Amino acid sequence: MTRYPCEEEVLGTIRPTPEERAYIRAIGGRLIEAVERSGMAKAMMVGSVARDTFVRGDRDLDVFMLFDPALSREELQEQGLSLAHRIAEEFGATWREKYAEHPYVNATINSLDIDLVPCYAVESATEIKSAVDRTPFHTRYILAHIDGYADDVLLAKQFAKAGGVYGSDHMTEGFSGYLCEVLTIYYGGFHALLHAAADWRPGETIDIEGHGTKRFEDPLVVIDPVDPERNVSAALSVSRMFEFAELARGYLAEPSAAFFRRSPPPPLTGEVFARLLAARGTHLFSLTFATPGYTPDTVVPQLRKSAESVRDLLERSEFPVSRIDVCMGPERCILLFELMAETVPAMRRHIGPPLSARENAEKFLAKYVSEEVFAGPYVEDGRYVVEVARPFTRALDLLRSKALFEVALGKHVRRSMKQGWTVKAGAECWDEEFAAFLSEFLERSSPLARIKRTTGK
pLDDT tens digit string along 140-177? Predict the structure, then answer.
């Protein structure tokens, strides 16, 4: 296929070198041999290294250890970890246990970041007993269908990475490597993918094998070629989907190597942050607490749920919210709220039932005639209305109160906040630990807008 000159330039920098390929594959081969020498499991390399679709410099290698499906989950975990520990130690590696659906071992071997993952050697992806059992089938499928698209996949991955939409983790909610591969194969190359993405609509559905058996409500539906009941793009948010579409439109209009370069601006200083915040005239509040001891895939959704619940509480209390965001740090988490007003009047109107609902109306009247109110109850348009005192007239006081525990916080977030949380306002929200996050919040722009500002086009 005909490529733009900038694409050949980019491929020259991201295509793995023959030496890099040979080195990683040699390490992978030695690990597979060690696993199979144990007699406990078969082994295979999976992921982009195995599929030859990894970007130069990526030092990740995944080796899956395939155990007999007759083992119980407990036996798989016990034998899998035991074997992984033995292999890591045989290679003189530093290692640690990590946890996804079940535990695995992450090791550093000869400068490579290696995951040793136990799974079941099932016959087909429809018979999986755990989510990781599906991964070997992904590798086999891509290897069988990649044809001449390896370079196209590299371009698609680097395009998504540079645009900030690569990664299916809960913080990014973007495109996984496997999704980039499936889309490139389905559309027939990088350019064809961009032309299609430029016209995507919510609910776009792709079923490369024509075997889907389940209905999905996600913004983009890509039926897994090896599992008719799975959407490969389930983690993709509608925002990331259309940021990719925006990037595709911009690139097709003016192809440039800038679309493959990720160079985020340096974080703001505390002084600049304070000046920009003052210029906005809004009211920023941060809520921080100790990071729960769980993976980002567990914690980040709970942060988002908690922030939305607090947003609803603020809105119900008549503090209008402009934007919110969350970030999980190694030591602390932060919930960020930008409000259009930080105070409200002491009085609020409370609308009661219509007088036509006699029983409820009489209960309302009895309740409020015996309480101290500013005015009422009185009848307005056939309903009771009473003007009462607010429990909080300052957003700061509300965010520091136990009222937060009356909303739907994530389980681990609630537990962490019970140990204490800190609320800061305005320029005091600046925190070096979250400098990049806070800077991006204030200077938020779409990926294409960022590129246009950078290139001046």
Answer: 999 999 989 999 999 999 999 999 999 988 889 999 99
- 141-146: Cβ within 8 A, 24+ apart: 141/225, 141/226, 142/51, 142/53, 142/178, 142/181, 142/182, 142/185, 143/50, 143/51, 145/185, 145/225, 146/51, 146/52, 146/53, 146/181, 146/185
pLDDT, one tens digit per residue, over 4-20 is 999 999 999 999 999 99
d(CA 155, CA 166): 12
- Whether the model pTM is above 0.85: yes
Q: Are strands 220-224 and 227-231 parallel, antiparallel or unpaired?
A: antiparallel
Long-range CB contacts for residues 447-453, cutoff 8 Å, separation at least 24: 447/163, 447/164, 447/165, 447/243, 447/246, 447/247, 448/243, 448/246, 448/247, 448/249, 448/250, 451/247, 451/250, 451/256, 451/258, 451/259, 452/250
Q: Which residue is listed with tokens 């309740």?
A: 367
